[in-house]
Design a protein that fits this description.
The chain is an alpha/beta fold. The protein contains nine helices and six strands, in the order βαααααβαβαβαββα. The protein has a six-stranded parallel sheet, sandwiched between helices. Helix 1 crosses helix 4 and helix 5 packs parallel to helix 9.
Amino acid sequence: MNKTTVNRPKSLILFDLDGVILDSRRNMEIAWSSVREELGIALPFEAYFAEIGRPFPDIMARLGLAHSAGAIERVFRRASSQSLHETPVFEGIDKMLSTLADSGRQLGIVTSKDAARTELVLDRLPIGFAVVMTPRDGLRGKPAPDHLLFAMARCNVDPSDTVFIGDMDSDAEAARRARVDYVHVDWGYGARPADCLFAAKAPADLQTFLLS
């Protein structure tokens, strides 16, 4: 059920990347196929995909592959980067981002994707972001709230004036723990949680909600 507890637009809008801005499922599937072929990993892509949204080492630990996490991540990143330029942004995202940026709000990215691949994606988008949070030493990844809290501190914005846009359980949990409102995108890869502030069916719906 959607909530309508906010009475004004938020001044800081933070976005997850994969499944929200970037339609990266096929890219991830290709990268995981390289992992399976080169390293002899038998685990199917569906098992990996069910855990996305968390930092890569955490996913490997949850899959019982912590002992090979470094090698797996190197192969995965290389294969993903090779086809990342062909990975589409969801239709309507560019227009939505431009409109939100023109409204004067601060926009940011909070993602579990590494910095190098994140930069490759952001270079294709029509705007710049006030803050970009990728995995880093000293901060726990989603579903911990650390990256959201750091992003708000960098932008000098309180949790009450921030919203996080995501598509996975780890996004929703990170928002809860950071005490920021969570908006779910139905075009993403995860199920809609019951307690999201709003669920958007298309980028145009999200734009309208965030500016209302």
